[in-house]
Structures are given as structure tokens and as C-alpha cells.
Known about the structure:
The structure is a single chain. The chain contains twelve helices and 15 strands. It has helices at residues 36-49, 61-72, 89-92, 115-129, 144-149, 154-171, 186-199, 217-230, 250-264, 294-305, 325-328, 360-378, and strands spanning 10-12, 15-17, 24-28, 53-57, 78-81, 98-101, 132-138, 177-182, 205-208, 237-239, 280-283, 315-319, 334-338, 342-347, 350-356. Helix 10 (294-305) links the parallel strand 11 (280-283) and strand 12 (315-319). Helix 7 (186-199) packs parallel to helix 8.
Amino acid sequence: MIPPRKSRTIRIRDLELGGGAPIAVQSMAATRTQDVAATSRQIRILEAAGADLIRIAVDSRADVEALAELRAGTRARLSVDLQESYRLAELVAPHVDKIRYNPGHLHHHEKEKSTRDKVAWIVEQAARHGCALRIGINAGSIAPEYDARYPDDHVSAIVACAIEHCALVDALGFRDYVVSIKDSDPRLVVDANVRFAAERPDVPIHLGVTEAGMPPEGIIKTRIAFEQLLARGIGDTLRVSLTLPFDDKGREIEVGRELIRDVEAGRFRSVPPNFFDGLNIIACPSCSRVENEKFIELAADVRRMTEYAQQHRLTIAVMGCRVNGPGETDDADLGLWCGPSHVNLKRGTTELGAFKYDEILPRLQRELDALIAARETTLPR
Length: 381
């Protein structure tokens, strides 16, 4: 049930990706990169589960030093996530097999430089050290110029960004790259990837539903997207992003492999027509940028606490870090993003303050009750 893929084959060290190569399954270490012992354990857990590639987040020179130590202790294929610190590419490239940059983050630093010059510099570092690249586009952090160009069509903005960054990399003569277009809504993931693949069928695609949340809902959201895309011959590597305890991260690999096997065998899971009705809880899968692992417990507590509101069509986002949290909670009715000792609470784009971990649930419930009451008063009688 997975038709032949049209993408070209690229290499990530000894791993062939795209074209006729098997679909690769990857994940990301969830622990703080500077906690070398814990992150080494994450790498071993993911290796044991069969991960083809393991991603590490790097946000500082201290993270780079830890990455070098991690590299010395493993032969696993490693990818690095640059986030906003694109200049760190020069330091991380000697230690990894693949570099991911987010086009939506390039404008944050060195504003006097053009996007083309920044991409050219990243490509130069990758080429010098034999690294592959991922152009990783996240719908929650699209570069401002694309939103300005397509103010009423978010998917077109995302696809245009992907196509134009591919053109930049192509013009530099670099070919070992993949593209990912991710969102927490699987319907957007399907729409954007189908449109991108129609324009650039030659480019290998990394599939993901970001912040899918906790099982079983997170697995269902992921299946909705992956089944639709793999059945179209779209997708050369994938990551299942689940909010899980650190020791259970290998489950992401297991779910990914199972999903591929099911689609190959024509086993599709039906989705109830009302799956997207009612309360929607978005939660990121945790990574090394998370500064307090209580975030994982908080996500589970939020789900339990909000059970009484299941019939209300509202979205609550629980994000684990300062990098993705502020922007990717903007579209939620209520958003929480977690710091070392406090949780920042938002209503839409309005910031409501920072609360201690043992204070946030009562305040969240007050805001949720207020939203429900406001909506009920506006319903037609």
C-alpha cells in the first residue's frame, strides 16, 4: 500500500534515505544535553529500540562541549537541532551526521545579513564535514515574511518557505538534504506535505506531527497524517513525537515501525468522525531544551484535570521550553510553556503571568471555566 517514492536517494553517513531505501525511523533525546549521563542513556534506549537516527538539541557552547563527549561515547548516527543558534553549526558539524535548521529562526540573529548568506554558511559547514541537512519548517514558527506574503493562507506560506529554501540550497550545489513540514494538526501536515511533494517530488521528506501529545491521542493524530501521506508515496523518514517519560522514549520508534508495517500491509485505523470535536490537548514530546522534567507530569495532570471539559471545543497547549513555547501556544485557547521553576500561562496571545508548578493547575482551571462560561453565554437560545 506504499507506492514507489519519487524522491532522490541521499546519504546520512552510511544511511541511505529516500527513493527505494527503507523508510527510516528516528527520534530525539529528551534529556538536557549537558546532562551527559542521562543523554547517553537516552541514546542507548533509542538505539536498543532500533532508531536509525537520534537528534540532539544544541543551544549553547556548553551544549556543544557535551555533544562532543556524547559523540565520543557512541557510534549512533546523530543529528543536531540548531534552533535559533545557527552560528553553532560550525562547532557541531564535526560531531554529527546531520544538521537541522529552521528557516523561521534565521531572522533572530545578525539581522543585517540576508537569509541566503546564512543558509550558504550553514551549507558550507555541512559540506565541509560531510553532514546532511534538514530544512525543518514548523508551522508555529514560520518566518515573518511568508506570513506577510500570505496573510490569509497559512499553508501556502509554509509551502512557499519550503520551496524557496530548497532553491537556495540547490543553487549552492548541495543535494544531501531533506525537508520537514510539521504542525500539531495532522490535517495541516497532510495538506502542506501533499502540496510540497507535488512541487518538489525529488526532495526526500521527513514526516512528523509535532506536539502530538500523550498516547493514545498522540498516536491517533500521528496515524491520521502518516497513513494519508505514506499511502501517497510521500515520506522517506519519520518521527513519532509523543509526550512520554524519559525511559519510555523507545516507544516512539516502536510506534513508528508498527505504523509503517500497517500501511505496507494495508491495515488502516479508522478515525471517528468526531475525533476533532471537543477538547484538544497539544503537548510537545519533550527534548533536551526542557528545563524541568515536571513538564511531563504536568501534561498528564492537565489531561486528568480537564476531563470534565471534554465536550467543549477548546485547545490547551502544554509546551516544555522557552524556544517553542511562546510562539506555538499562540493559536491555543489556553497555553502553558514551562521554565525551570515556573509555568507561563497564556490566553490566546495574552500573557497571564508565571506560576509555580504547584500553583498552575488551579489557575488554569479558573481560566478554562471562564472560557466555557463565556462561550455558553454567547450560544443561541
